[in-house]
Amino acid sequence: MSEQTCYENYPLRIVALSNLLNFSIWIIGAYLLLGFGILFSILFLVYCIVMEFRVLTRSCVNCYYYGKICFSGRGKVCSLLFKKGKSGNFVTDKVTWKDILPDFMVSIFPIIGGIVLLIISFSWLIVLLLVILVLLTTAGNSVIRGSFACKNCKQREIGCPAQKLFETSKMENHETSLEKN
Ligand code: SF4
After folding, report:
1. Is position 142 within any domain?
2. φ, ψ (nearest 5 deg) of residue 65
């Protein structure tokens, strides 16, 4: 059985990996939307930055990792930009799929854009970028969260509504597939 360690400060290689994933999604997304003109790419990147600020002000200010190095490095960045919130709020805040939908739109917007571009004018490059984007969003995020971020997170031990939401939906999916079999 693998030993589970909660980090006080995450190793920098995990921070680098997590940011590599995020920025790759942003860059591929911006490149795909460039097919509609530079304005779409710029608006998309502005949206990504707004979403980052949303996480910092809604979650990171109340997180155990405020001022520390969390898996994404946001805990440190947050302490440089915003005042510390109340750690109790992190645990009591309710998180639903509706709350995290805006974050998913960072991947969904360029995926929709890429599909539209394919319909207008087929290109293997767009197909390849779409496949990479979908893989990074699904498998990539799941590996980062499951094997590095949530797995070693002190806030998970204290209480994390987002993690609970993911766990509940994983269990529901598992039960549904058992019922089908
Ligand atoms: S458990 Fe996962 S989602 Fe929750 S604070 Fe930790 S890293 Fe973030």
Report:
1. yes
2. -85, 10
Say if 2 falls within a structural domain. Answer: no
Ligand 1 pocket at CB < 6 A: 63, 71, 149-150, 153, 155-156, 160, 162-163
The confidence band for 1, taking pLDDT boundaries of 50, 70 and 90, is very low
Cα 7 to ligand 1 centre (Å): 12
Q: Using pLDDT thresholds of 50, 70 and 90, give the confidence band for residue 3.
A: low
Instruction: Tell me what pLDDT residue 5 has.
Output: 85
CB proximity list for 157: less than 8 A, separation 6 or greater: 6
The tokens 């039960």 sit on which residue? Answer: 175
Is-contact 104 44, C-beta < 8 A? no
Provide the residue range defining the domain that includes 19.
Answer: 12-180
Count of domains observed in the chain: 1
- Calculate ∠ Cα 42-45-47, nearest 5°: 110
56 Cβ neighbours under 8 A, 6+ residues apart: 74, 77, 78, 81, 82
Q: Is residue 4 domain-resident?
A: no
The model carries a pTM of 0.91
Query: Contact at 8 Å (CB) between 35 and 126?
Result: yes
In a domain, 29, yes or no: yes
